[in-house]
């Protein structure tokens, strides 16, 4: 196995200190101060992990000073703190506007300790004051019930990225600096995180950053060496490979590697300064020339021992520089007096008394190293984006109304019409709003927006791009074939105080289930934090939906994102399924004006029947659901049947089924109900939008059969209505995971969500009213269903009864 | 913008042909034959896209010969076919065992056409014979109702990777060649796909491939240049960056770039041969020396025009070499006589009559270029893995039984005990079974398996790895901090005829929602294909579950993967929540023996109360759910209350609630039901495991209140039981998205899934039985709940009543 070790040994953090930059910019006094400042931070990290009392070790350490349950991670703290402190120096020297993003999970102490040292933490939480009592509370609250988590959670000022679920640090950082030309995001990327797919591709974000109008991201790839229980891939490939990888991603990597603290300070100081100078120089060049180019932006590869400054070995096993330093290094400290001694000696080695004095406040000599006021990264308003958020400029959406003279008689392009409205939003909010998508904006019929602004592309151009390429270095539309990256950009953009929208094919939105979950969790917790201001909602427009994925086949049929979203907090999630163009406009306008929500809007991109004029659409969407009188013949009385729908394609089928029933069985009294706002179905105690029992019964009755045609998997409706009176009479149809290469009608038939199946279902549940009179119509409907399928198999197309269907007056 | 174009123009496929390898290995005759073979394939591609009649153009093309709906993609077909044909030459020359993976979406014609040319397609589907009639059917079926999709769907022989959802080609390829030392996976990676996160990190799979015992992957990064409507990132960065990127990933890239067909044949022939020689040489070196090293394996960067061989311009717009060639190039061919003429001329330019003669069968001169029999990539049995699949060798799982004398009185490590059984599986199936996980196998208490085999690591080693590193070049455990990659490996490993298991933290399994969805869809369709044999089930063991993520906080609490899985076909998905060690053993053994399922098993990793001895556990798991007599006092009669549970932690709380109720209200008759197999709850018509109405009522009664404590989000149970008699008396508790930094009991209380809340819920629903007698106990329970919370806030711990609780006899 020689060949697996040869290249690597010299590349351990315990080899000679190595640095791409050869400067020694610091005086001995500066090195000493930086070291002591860093030690102050590390002391606080250990305090957070271990102590609930005796915070300054003013008396000998005893068991009762220790937390009963030891939580949080030590492994990445020292390297993160080291990076932060060195960037502080740059902020002061160059008067930078910067904030920090911490990628590694559970390593928050490395930064929270700094936020406390520079005073911000106490300003935000006065009872975590800069004195012994405050420090004791600061320690105890960490990873403690009623306290704060071990990530950069919303409770932590200075954070807009929690970390923990790994992989989004780079895309969040880019999102936050787009259109913030003065801002630098110092972004610490864990080498565990760097193995994830989302992170691995997000390095390419540099091809979408405009050096004139956007800020900069300075990534620090922290080669900590280990994950929970494994070495990291990037820490074990050769230096040559790692450097090439970063160069291949388009960055200029600067290596800082070693464990000798003085030497590492010199190396890091020189390197960080070189990076800052390069960033400022590139920005100057672009901004003075007015010419966009793609710099090979600098980034830092920081290789330092995991758990740096811990004992190298404990009880015969490696600790510092090993995966054993990942979590709490001395887990038996409360039960093992030897471990407690090791801990006490270790903590005292930082000399807390010299750093914090008797009063427990960082001594002024060291405090002077940190920036002040809003120059502190912990205080950057970007990290509490609601503070700087301005509302979108929006013209009245009614100006884009589609004319509907009679409901259900004209076809119209709901999505392409919305695109015209969206063009206005893009045009009128040129530094405040972006549209994201994974290469599907054109396919999703939204390309009208290129009239206002094209797709940002800070990468190579070819002459043929003139032929409809719609690329420009300062576009407002962002497309990369990575749902993870575009979602990450959008989250970062929103959390830093701006607005935006993601458009995506419905079937592939599951790719970012987990990201949307985590964003919803962030929003929920952030809303509970008193000093955080509301940010714009995350607007996800799903199109190219399941019912028009007949031709792409089974892999493209999955409307289940709604099930995932519906599991998140009712305070945060909203789901809308507008049935036509005017409802889509009304819904999107509402979403753009909202804050602190995850809005999911499902609307197909193809031409559709139009139902409501603008006035009716606004009224319908405001209620969230309602009876469509023009499609009902129950004249306000108790109907025999309620036909209901939620979603555009399924509404057409439900209407067609209603028309068939009324044709074949004219004596039936049918009420037609359409649902736009899905959460209306839930009881009012479950979701803020939920109908009361009385409101619900007024629409759906309490005992008549309801045939409900739903866009997504049918059981989502059952899950929402299981408590409703008469729920056993609710018959829901939707996508039941039945598909292949189909025609649209064939796909609906496979899932029994077509007009014929719905009408048959209704007849089967109306025996109390119909007696035997349903048998003939039922036979006829069955026959028509079969003939439709035969036609599809013969021609590859749907019969005209489907493609040309209109509401029969 | 000069700087954005300078480097790129010379790097267009229309520049001079470029190749890293300078060989000209082909004779003029060979070039001619390869060209004609390729044209035969391209002719078939166009036929699939456009024609339903007149397959050989033996009469002039007319509108009625055209498909009414034009589907499928042309963009990547030519490049994929080109690659395939050149690899055929290598198979014949070096007698290789190879198969192909096609990453790009909807580009299947490029390969399916080849499968038809080499005869395999007609062997598998005799009515798609090698004659005019067969060719007509072959064309018509493509993207046609009742036919096949435009991906490499399960209906397509020679495929184990559908593509379409992009990003998994490399990880699937690696999975399929692990432990297949003789096999080479020719893997065509789209440059759109290459932008996805999962693909971007999967290049690192080469650090997990053992050149002695595994096969090889030859990736061909197809720089087609465009996605649907955008240039690709990798096609627009500089040559230098792209080469460095691939070298940084650890590969040796060989460039083949251009559009001149003769020159490209020479370049590709030389390059493919160089790659094959390198692969064989590395394997020889490692296998003869017995020493594992990590070769810089070769890979090919093929830059060719998108839609290669189409007209360069049509109607004044670029077609070949542009994104307009992505889908169907001439979309108006049926309505626009000019476009029809262009198509006819284009198709005739390939001279079908010379390629296929009058009979419609590839002429022997060309057929001789393809390999024969199972050497054809289309016929490799690996792509129908069930054929070569051997059952696992498994000792009786009962040998690992945990002793349980009295239910609910002893604690035991369910997961660590299962790890001992798993050690046997790993040991006894040394080339047939792998355990995958994202860096959590140790954390998940499964590290016992390192006794049988360690973690595979074909990357740098350091001396400190001796200190518990558990790494070796031939380990059976595979860990990379990318859920996407390990899941992709496992899918590839299973689909190529082997067995395995993924273990993961529950909260982060949502990261691969979409992958699991797609795998389930593959399995469902594959099971409908008569010639496909069953493959091993995809076994996903979820641990570090929500109820023990109290300390990691809100981001780590999400049990919603089950909702996603439950949306997939009932024929494919299975969900098990074994409550204790013996049930876990029984469940896992069952899963390992099963085939064609996605099995999801949820079990916590911490110590838990043990309930069932092995005999009872087997009986319980075989039924899937049942009454626990020892915890019930209804003595077989109608109970007052049914207390039910599904999941380990929640079972303990439900039992504790039962004990509290029986202590405070001894006259209550309580039946305790535990559910292991979640789908038992669904009606039997909905899922093959579903209980009949009578079976269900026999357990849950039809009218008594049921308090059901569920592991996951409670509404999943409601969704499954909404049709059940008495469902309105079903009160489900579970995780309701309420959490923060908590203790375990506090987390349960926040979600009302704790013993006190359950008992209170029961009392509130037993007024018919209890009258006012519940008021006092209710008060007491409320008090105890509050005191538990106070204790947690004070100490950070749970009271002993929780940590030491046992069933009271």
Give a written overview of the molecule.
The structure is a homodimer of 809-residue chains. Helix content of chain A is 37%, strand content 13%. Chain A is α/β, with parallel strands linked by helices and 809 residues long. The first copy, chain A, has three domains: 2-380, 3-Layer(aba) Sandwich (Rossmann fold); 397-608, 3-Layer(aba) Sandwich (Rossmann fold); 624-803, Rossmann fold. In chain A, helix 2 (28-50) crosses helix 3. The longest helix of chain A has 29 residues, at 261-289. Chain A is elongated. At the A-B interface, helix 1, helix 8, helix 10, strand 8 and helix 16 of A face helix 1, helix 8, helix 10, strand 8 and helix 16 of B. Chains A, B: This is Phosphoketolase. Chains A, B: It holds the Pfam family XFP_N. Chains A, B: Belongs to the XFP family. Chains A, B: Residues 27-387 form the Xylulose 5-phosphate/Fructose 6-phosphate phosphoketolase N-terminal domain.
The end-to-end span of chain A amounts to 81 Å
| CATH top level assignment of the largest domain in chain A | Alpha Beta
- Any idea how many domains of chain A? 3
Give the fraction of residues assigned to helices of chain A: 25-40%
Beta-strand residue fraction of chain A: 5-15%
Count of discrete alpha- or pi-helical segments spanning 4 or more residues of chain A: 28
Instruction: Give unreliable regions of chain A as ranges.
Output: none
Give the overall shape of chain A.
Answer: elongated
Q: From the helix content, strand content and strand pairing of chain A, which structural class follows?
A: alpha/beta
- Which pair of chains has the greatest number of interface residues, and how are they split between the two chains? A-B, 145 and 145 residues
Gyration radius of chain A (Cα, Å) is 30 Å
CATH homologous superfamily of the largest domain in chain A - what is it?
A: Thiamin diphosphate (ThDP)-binding fold, Pyr/PP domains
The overall strand count of chain A is 23
Write down the overall mean pLDDT of chain A.
Answer: 96
CATH names the topology of the largest domain in chain A as Rossmann fold
Largest sheet of chain A: 6 strands, mixed
Widest sheet: strand ordering of chain A? 1-5-6-4-3-2
- CATH-level-2 architecture of the largest domain in chain A: 3-Layer(aba) Sandwich
Oligomer: homodimer
